[in-house]
Design brief:
- Helices cover about 50% and strands about 20% of the residues.
- The longest helix has 16 residues, at about 45-60.
- By secondary structure, it is an alpha/beta fold.
């Protein structure tokens, strides 16, 4: 049975956090299974951060898994909507 991983995106989902988040996401991909993204504390978002999440989601979907957002902050929702990618992100 596939495992389920859960982690927080923290306060920053932007270019300053991409390297750290990418490492954590790569580890989650190694485990296989669905991933819960805790996004309620995110205060700063940019296209680089959301692009990373989008790539992560696509990789998960290739293996039959997906991301599940846990209470995404208004900043996450608004920025994804402005970029027109909320459905691609599963929001």
């Amino acid at each position: 049975m596939a495992s389920k991983t859960s982690f927080s995106l923290g306060k920053h989902l932007d270019i300053s956090a991409v390297n750290n988040l990418q490492e954590r996401m790569l580890k989650a991909l190694e485990k296989s299974g669905d991933v819960n993204l805790k996004a309620g504390s995110v205060e700063r978002v940019d296209s680089a951060g959301l692009q990373l999440v989008l790539c992560f989601r696509r990789e998960l979907q290739r293996s039959g898994s997906d991301i599940f957002w846990q209470k995404p902050s208004e900043k996450v929702l608004t920025t994804a909507a402005l970029l027109g990618i909320q459905s691609k992100l599963g929001l």
